């Protein structure tokens, strides 16, 4: 199974979302939050595209990679899901390590908050992510959809209507 | 908020930079002042007038995920430009097919579809009963037919019950309407004004259901109540069953009883009664208002439009297909 950075992100937010996503049931197109994030992504650093390259790692695409300094830049809208963001980015670093660039680091950028955060991949992190990969395989193989988690952030999730409609 | 655009006037629709340009032409073919339609605001297009367009436009519309629905001179739905599917979910499609193939599974979806439709027809009849119309006989007979739905063991049988319910309902409709009467369903061609309106409304309802299905992972050609046909997106017909009484019929009752549509809004072309353009516009305006009307949704706890209710119905089907939750049809509760 191909595990993308989105799988890693969703694993840390909601297993039901992960399961649905793995079955091709995507909902991002319905979400205004996602639309807004996309605009922030496109409009935040207008000079960037010429400086940095887009890096395709096969299972993940890094939008802004600073090849000279080996730094992954990842833009996010808010720090609400910070843990999930960090693991997503650490997964990029793991994929880079697997591709023969072990020294790469990353910067999480929150342009609307004017904040950035450096992210590194430790050996423990790498080990943890390998376990996560296995758990993701297990969850997505399940016949039955995982239960709803009923968190306050469900209301902002693009899967909210699908999960909660009766 | 994206909107549906209905184009009546002849003209040329083209791509101009990254947006849409409509250039109307007058009776002599002379071009008039162009109008610009921001592409971000368009959810879909309904074409009633004759339109010139080129493939560059259709490429652009396809990329923007805008479907175009065509209607002929007699307001018949003739087809759609259906933008490339962008939500593929192989496993869901397999499930959808699997549910169609097993009679037992198929009935588990088809029965609630009929129940929902019948319930919503009853809602209409009861609403007008409370306003002094004699719809009691129709209500009683329909309620008897509804109790047979669970016993039905085959799709044919179920469709038979559906036909009986609908016949009773149409008798009830004539009690509701003040002036113009339906006098039984006639189509291809519709023999009177009410039948013409029902045909027109049902087609519009079918297309909106198709649009909503397009933005989900469901496959529009695999249906449960109707037989998947080669020509039609039959899943849209299934879902439209639930919403026709609520959306189409309510709009028609209100337009006719308030005399916003009258006999002279129709055109009699050798036994084929159709809406004149002015009448169509009146209908579509009321239709749009109805779609955008909101209700507080019980399980979601937020206000949703009728249009969104159609999409929610698609989600409920998805949930049923993946085994998350058994399908329950939308039943108007007010």
Your description of this structure?
- The complex is a heterodimer of chains A (166) and B (334).
- By secondary structure, chain A is an alpha+beta fold.
- In chain A, 43% of the residues lie in helices and 16% in strands.
- Chain A is globular, with a radius of gyration of 16 Å.
- Chain B is an alpha/beta fold and 334 residues long.
- Helix content of chain B is 49%, strand content 16%.
- Chain B has helices at 55-63, 90-101, 103-129, 136-149, 155-176, 193-214, 234-257, 277-292, 306-321; strands at residues 3-7, 11-16, 19-24, 35-37, 42-47, 51-52, 67-71, 77-81, 266-269, 272-275, 294-296, 303-305.
- In chain B, a hairpin with a 2-residue loop joins strand 2 and strand 3 (19-24).
- Chain B starts with a strand and ends in a 13-residue tail after the last helix.
- The model of chain B has no long low-confidence stretch (mean pLDDT 91).
- At the A-B interface, helix 7 of A face helix 2 and helix 9 of B.
Keywords, separated by commas or semicolons:
heterodimer, A: 166 residues, alpha+beta, five-stranded mixed sheet, 5 strands, 16% strand, globular, B: 334 residues, alpha/beta, four-stranded mixed sheet, 9 helices, 12 strands
